[in-house]
Hints:
572 residues; mainly beta; 15-stranded parallel β-sheet; globular
Amino acid sequence: MLKRVLMGALSVCGGILWAEDPIVISGETRTVAAESELGAATSVTLADGGLVAFTKSQTLAKTYTVSGEGGISVAAGQTVTAAAANLTKGAVGKTFVKAGPGVLAQSSALGTVSTPSRWVIREGEFLLSPAGSQFGNHSAATALTLDIREGATLHLRSATTSGHSPIGPLELTGGRFLTENFTGTGREGNTAFKGGVVAHASTTPSYISCPRWAHLNHVNADTTFDVETGATLIMDGILTNGVNGAWNANMPGQLTKKGGGELILLKRSGFTNGLRLEGGTVTVADPEGLGVGTVTVVADATLKVLPGVSVTCPPLAVEGACTLTVEGEGAFTAPATLPEGLTLVNHATGANASGGVTGTTLVLNGSRAVVNVAAGQTLTLTAVEEAMPGLGALTEVVKTGAGTLRFPASMAAFESLTIEDGFVETANEVGLGNASRVTVKGGGVRVLASFTQAKTPLYFSGTGRLDIPAGITFGAHSNWFHSASAVVTKTGTGIWKLVTQFKLDGTVKADINAARWIIDEGRLQLYGGDNFGGYATRPNITLEAHEGTAIFTDNGGAHIPMCPLVLRGATL
Length: 572
């Protein structure tokens, strides 16, 4: 029998209008554009899979209580916002379902959950954006299970660095769990996996992104990642004992890998009590991906080292007779002493391509991403993606290795690109990674098609190369080409064209003090006007042109005090 509340002096056909309180939606989906369409009652009970489907964005005022299982659906492109008080009553002890491709946003902290319950993020995004702690803070309880399904995302966006989110347990079936913080460095992922992680079999890999740091169980600093057979779990973040690597002495953390599936660790690991392998595959994309401490093999397991990664294995231990098989094209150095009972099969070769890259996709998550390409190899990325919107602007990409890296034609922008060795090839500015700054410390840039700089600054530091093949013209703009105290060697028979004046006095200022430009092949074509100091008395650059090369000006009125100028059989 529904409780009935008198609504006031409103009558219908001489009678009195009564409203259900709570409103009960059982075994059906009630579609509404506005919350008021549900009725005037202040609470809604969802039972037997009942859903309220919102077609428009709005902020909820009613309380939604689940009896058994029920939830809220949000239409594509819409956002429904609720405070914790609107939803937590329904979640406690029950199963709350987020459905629909839109966003359900919770604006206040959930706090401690004392009764076991489950949230199923079935579709779309559940955005938690509080200023406080979620899911129990530092308590030992692991009452709330987060169950994220394929194609769905749970996005924890803490409004302050104090926003703390120890979770447990976390279940992923091809879903995405993303964390971030707005303040501080903007890169902290203040999450503790105190309840462990289970990845179920799915066609899409499950994905966890914790920009910079994520720590293991607060209570005893240990946790388990159970990746079931047929599942892949990508961990894109640094696993450590505590925030910023703290508490190492009194809280040594251990990570246990269970299940027959694959756990991919994209970043280094800072936990100090070792890695426990109970089956399946662990893939590392960073030289320090295995953490600090002993790697204990409990059952037959596989360790995969991604191309371009060089891993020196920590000490190995074994429980019983087990085999550890090392695969991948990265380099693996085994410990000098192997424990009795362990069979090590090492197929790692130390061959070609990338570190910090899954397949040919680079994921930007706010921390430093190193892409290593070995000598003689070319890695062509097919996609550059953000783990969540805005993290590209925080991500520094570093190119290492003597091989060649090529970015796709379009991609997410990132903060900066640093080239330490080898070439980055590009056919346009976007091909430089769409970065706000490109720094060449070693290696260089190879231009594959003619274009002129318009926005992306190149900073040469140390010794770098600019390779321009035959038939190609690269137009360098003085505002975006900097080489103070650097040595820049131009190779390839194409044309390096300065499209604006490179000088220190006047309206255009180029950072070229004490630079040395070596034209080893092809030609340097100068823009008309005053270059390299104009009428200034001090020299600020040295030009060196080798045999078979030329330096031209495209304006007869150009004033080019080049001092000193070194010619080795070249044409001026």
